[in-house]
Amino acid sequence: MHNFTLIFLAALVLTTVMQLWLALRHARHVALHRDEVPAGFARTVGLEAHRKAADYSVAKTRLGMTEAVAGAAVLLLLTLGGLLDLLGAWWNPSFAVNTHAYGIALILSVALLYGIVELPFRLYRVFVIEARFGFNRLTPRLFVVDLLKQTLLALVIGGPLLLLVLWLMDRMGGQWWLYVWVVWMGFNVLLLVIYPTVIAPMFNKFTPLDDEALRGRIERLFARCGFKAQGLFVMDSSRRSSHGNAYFTGFGAAKRIVLFDTLVQSLEPAEVEAVLAHELGHFTHHHVIKRIGLLFAISLAFLWLLGFLMTEPWFYSALGVSAPGTAMALILFFLAMPVFTFALQPLSSLYSRKHEFEADRYAARQASAADLILALTKLYKDNASTLTPDPLHSAFYDSHPPAAMRIARLQMRSST
Hints:
Layout: H1 3-32, H2 47-78, H3 83-91, H4 99-132, H5 140-171, H6 176-199, E1 206-208, H7 212-225, E2 232-235, E3 246-249, E4 256-260, H8 261-266, H9 269-284, H10 287-309, H11 313-317, H12 326-341, H13 345-366, H14 369-382, H15 391-397, H16 403-414
Parallel strand pairs: 2-4
Antiparallel strand pairs: 1-2, 3-4
Helix pairs in contact: 1-2, 1-15, 2-4, 3-4, 4-5, 4-12, 5-6, 6-10, 7-9, 9-13, 9-14, 13-16, 14-16
């Protein structure tokens, strides 16, 4: 057995065990604190709401554990189990002349396999867990329509991109990874531009905010912050879920602000303003640009690494593949890489939390820390977000700071 096979197996076992251990820690920690509302929320969150959030978090965590085991099993089946090698041998006679068509067929086969494995978990999450806790409003018909739209978009947008990447990998010599990186950067920027006006409206209806008082309040906030956007819209998120949220989308002149209709219904105007001030904090501190820059830097490093690995015969044989190739290298790399990078996930969470604290500070200056506290507390309650996550689990997975920590910092700013 090749040394890299042993390293891969060890990394896979370690990653899976860590995922299960973290999930067990989280479920136990949340259940242990289920019957007592944290002191900082005792006046605003009732015991029943707190218990609901705890049970909701535990249910999602348990499903995540099953998904982790299933994901590891599929990865083993594809690599050391020989399924990927069999798929390659099966598609090869059909596309012996057109290697790019062979590569696309092989990649789509793997994507279809993962889609089939993921579907039962997705159905259970939506129609069992979300429905049990009163969040799901998605009908089976709309679920199927969404799935078909997502699949069609992936084929229409991803297919040509994949074909171009495979062509560059074959034709640009040893420096192909630089060309692919440039294409990848351009593709991401293009998505940022077209998503608000082309892709998002395929799934939701966006209408201009018709509450004149709230609109005026938000426009004054934008004026104070020096922010210009293409529009202020309300999204019919209640068609699918009762969860509330708000976000900025787009890039450059295509920027727009989107409020979930559920959020507009549950928050007071001053609280909506505070939430948007937080989002404006991300814009003012250039968090989106910083994250895109980090993504591009990491992508460049990974593409360089793939450029090295795809020329090494041991990379294929150690992962159960007998026929090296461009598409095969691409698949193996993206299958194996998460196994080796999982331990670095807390760094990503820490970086994201830093941005959230910065956005909170900005919101406290431009709007009201007290209103943001009220808004966040309502959102925690309405979305059944646990107030007592396991600290280590949270450090790995949560892009936002724990509720108690976040509220405590805002309270300090509210009292000054």
